[in-house]
Description:
Blueprint: H1 4-15, H2 22-33, H3 36-49, E1 55-62, H4 65-74, E2 87-93, H5 96-107, E3 114-120, E4 133-138, E5 144-151, H6 152-167, H7 179-195, H8 209-223, H9 225-233, E6 237-242, E7 252-258, E8 263-269, H10 274-287, E9 294-300, H11 307-310, H12 319-329
Parallel strand pairs: 2-5, 6-8
Antiparallel strand pairs: 1-2, 3-4, 4-5, 7-8, 7-9
Amino acid sequence: MISNSKIDQIGNKLKKNNDLEKEDLNDLLEWRNNFSPSIEYYHSKLKSKINSTHIVTLSRRLKRIDSIQIKLKRFSTMRLSTLQDIAGLRVVLKDHKLLQSAFATLRGLPSRHVIKRLDNYHNYPKDDGYRGIHLIYQSDKKTMVEIQLRTELQHIWATAVEIYGELQNTSFKTGEGNERWKVFFNLLSSYFAIKEECSPIKDHLNLTEKQIKSKLKKVIKDLKVIEQLNASTNSIEVISKKHNETGKQGKYAILELNLKDNTTRVEFFNKKDVTTAIEIYTKKELENRDGKNINIVFVNVDDVSKIQKTYPNYFLNTSKLLEILSKIILDQY
């Protein structure tokens, strides 16, 4: 077992952009992979307790090294050993009523884990427009897992923020990015919230739906949002590879979005090949530590046919958003 003090030493090196020794990297990866059993435990809980017909997508992941580094730098007093979202699951529900139902189900579950923290951004959205519900569970071994609940509209919004951030090589989630695009995302979030009979962000509380829509239509036209997203997200080439040609396209996949050559590479692995998959993923992740133009993630896949729907940001898929924006401009939504 790797001690918290050792993990915090590694975290301090990440904050300072210091190179990690091979031993440090091995310790960091081993520590991160120790969260896997907790992810599987909650994945089984979610599948058994939430009606599958209510779910749009259900996904799980371990936080990437570059994402860990960004978060540690953003919160200077944070220690790596106390980071609460190393292990994460996301449930996207069809609408806000089903989200509330799933939330009530989770809160009522008898569990060997306890809720350590609850952030209800569904009822109280962040100032940047982010909405959803985050629950942090902690096991008796102090391992923490984050479960995110989102509606489909909330997920479309969050995915758009990530995709446009990728295209601009910036992070809207951490306050970076073009101010006019931030206004667009704020207005879109509030409009979606009103459509779901929820509260808009603070800056828009005194505006009517008509006023928000009018401002939103103007910024969509001024920024040429539809044209820009269409041009940027329709040229991605998907390259697929199976590592075991004799088996089924199994449970695990490495997704690699490369904006240098406009490709998304998907490598599938069977369950028995998971060790090989982790080795390949780790090598790729370490080779692309700077994170510029390349985004890599290792995921556990229940339904291979839904992989683009589950991880749309890795395929630059904004089709749902573009459909909605077009309807807003035509006063059909």
